[in-house]
Amino acid sequence: MASSSSLFKQLGLTGAGSPLSGRHLLLILLGAGFLAFTVFVVHPNEFRIQSFFAGSCGRPSAEAVAAASPGKAGSVPRATATEAAQAPAPAPDDDGDVRVLIGIQTLPAKYERRHLLRTVYSLQVREHPSLAGRVDVRFVFCNVTSPDDAVFVALEIMRYGDIIVLDCAENMDNGKTYTFFSTVARAFNATRYDYVMKADDDTYLRLPALAASLRGAAREDAYFGLQMPCDRENFYPFPPFMSGMGYALSWDLVAWVAASDLARREQDGPEDMWTGRWFNLAGKAKNRYDQAPRMYNYKGASPDSCFRHGFVPDTIAVHMLKDDARWAETLAYFNATAGLPLSGQIYHLPPPAGSRP
């Protein structure tokens, strides 16, 4: 008690004229000690998060918050697909993870499909925060000619910033893919992507599986996808090539396409076959990664084949999801709604049919 009294005197908080008695101050110090014990010992993780916010003007990284709150999935900040697309490039000496730009070829009027895909991929990024800024999803179409579409697309660009409008007439097999790769080579030259992927809007990509596969692939002269033909039938004079459902090129091949007279001249034809043909004729893409059976077409009632079969757990991509029913079945199988908040008050939803346990 004597030491406490001495401390109070040094602080000038006792004696004549002091508003507080020694007993009051002792109670204050005991309360402060209890608060410090609670913050630093009982709830240290919360203090670490608060310290992070206090020491930074910006938002904390997903990794920092995840480290501060291990095992608490709800505490990780959630990144949208747009945030992923706009995130700055990591430093060259970062953790070595692969950076991928995915261009989903679609049409200006397909607003509902873009809304579905934005939701699907932003939820994957939320579940796997390390994808943010490393796997960027963009929607790609040619010049917008409809005045109505121009208004709605402009709103999308302002809101999401994830659309690339190419300078070409809308088409599927008359140069759209060439224009995409050559435009990306110029517009994203400073972004340091390792791979650029062309994908269809009826393809469901599982981004963590895609990134993990590309992480182990070569970063140069590399061509990644479902190789066709995938059986003994040589059904086209320019095999092999990667299926148009979704294939990725290493950045050096994207730059080569942009500079190649061969690719510029040979644009009219099935886009996936012609891409493979460019590389075959030029002796390019020596590092080829065939992802069968992890990339495949939706089976439905069709017989199994080397490019079409039932769902498998380690899927990278499912193609030919032409309608909502197919999308719902696919998303249910892969437990896309597994993180739905449980509440008996406001969410009266049946469990997804066909979902895996």
UniProtKB/TrEMBL annotation:
What's a Pfam family this protein contains? Galactosyl_T
Membrane topology type: Single-pass type II membrane protein
GO molecular function (one): hexosyltransferase activity
Major place of residence: Golgi
Going by the entry's taxonomy, the superkingdom of the source organism is recorded as Eukaryota
Instruction: State the InterPro entries in the record.
Output: Glyco_trans_31, Nucleotide-diphossugar_trans
Pathway of this protein?
Answer: Protein modification; protein glycosylation
Give the EC class as a word: transferase
Q: What is its EC number?
A: 2.4.1.-
The UniProt entry's GO CC annotations, sorted and at most eight, read:
Golgi membrane
User: What SUPFAM superfamilies does its record include?
Assistant: Nucleotide-diphospho-sugar transferases (SSF53448)
Q: What keywords are assigned to this protein?
A: Glycosyltransferase, Golgi apparatus, Manganese, Membrane, Signal-anchor, Transferase, Transmembrane, Transmembrane helix
Instruction: Report the transmembrane regions from the record.
Output: 20-42
Cofactor(s) of this protein: Mn(2+)
* Compartments where located: Golgi apparatus membrane
Per the record, the similarity remark reads: Belongs to the glycosyltransferase 31 family.
Protein name stated in the entry: Hexosyltransferase
